[in-house]
Design a protein that fits this description.
- With 240 residues, this protein is an alpha+beta fold.
- Helices cover 23% and strands 26% of the residues.
- Strand 4 (37-38) and strand 5 (41-45) form a beta hairpin.
- The chain is elongated and about 85 Å long.
């Protein structure tokens, strides 16, 4: 088989009894780009079980092994001309970038994995993946670093402390002002309706529901504006 190749990153076995499946290329997790650290210990997330893996002294390795599920997770680009592939059994393989078919070496799997052709690009298949707007952010609560796409017009939730903050002061400030304007609008509507229909309400008790509704909405909007105006601010440390 000229295009068939298999090379496990943690073990090598004989290849027999195969089954055809389709798989996707596996891109590496880059230490320092959003995985963060705890008490100064650099960590990355396992691609299989999502546990945190300590990579102290391992940053020069291409892959690290998870102590929970014993599967490999790539943390660096594959060597030139190679690529990572994750078998459905979770075995991480490395093969030629041009390979169209590889075999899983695990004795309880032994699948033949058919791969889609890798498109050629000016930067090659092993270049650092880039997403527009993706930046490193320092959490305003726990000061840990994580990745956030600033093109998403939303608040950021830190994966470490699970708390919400605004990336940059402008987003929270603008939202707070919008809710203050809405508060003033509903408050004015409530006051206007109350003043204009006060005598009418004395004989039609149902109009009091409108009064209560307008002032209640104004109160909720005011609380929301205070929430945004007093929100913690996370700092944008620049693009990844």
């Amino acid at each position: 088989m000229g295009d068939e190749e298999s090379q496990p990153l943690l073990a090598e076995k004989d290849i027999k009894g195969r089954q055809r499946v389709i798989s996707q290329d596996e891109s590496p997790v880059y230490p320092g780009l959003g995985n963060g650290n705890v008490d100064g210990i650099p960590l990355v997330t396992c691609r299989v079980c999502q546990s945190m893996i300590d990579i102290s002294g391992k940053k020069e390795q291409h892959v690290v092994k998870c102590s929970q599920c014993n599967e490999a997770t790539p943390i660096r680009n594959a060597p030139p001309g190679r690529k990572y592939v994750r078998c459905p059994c979770n075995c991480l393989l490395i093969c030629k970038a041009s390979s169209l078919r590889i075999a899983c070496p695990r004795p309880n799997c032994k699948r033949i994995i058919n791969l889609a052709p890798t498109p050629a690009g000016p930067s090659g298949s092993n270049s650092l993946p880039s997403m527009p707007g993706m930046c490193r952010v320092s959490c305003g609560h726990c000061m840990q670093t994580f990745l956030f796409n600033t093109l998403n017009n939303s608040l950021a939730r830190c994966p470490h402390c699970k708390k919400v903050s605004s990336v940059g002061r402008e987003f929270a400030r603008s939202r707070g002002i919008i809710f203050l304007i809405l508060t003033a609008t509903f408050l004015a509507i409530g006051i206007g309706v109350t003043a204009g229909t006060y005598t009418y309400a004395s004989t039609h008790g149902g109009i009091y529901v409108v009064y209560v509704g307008a002032f209640l909405i104004a109160l909720v909007l005011f609380i929301r504006s205070i929430y945004y105006l007093t929100m913690r601010i996370s700092q944008n440390e620049g693009p990844m």
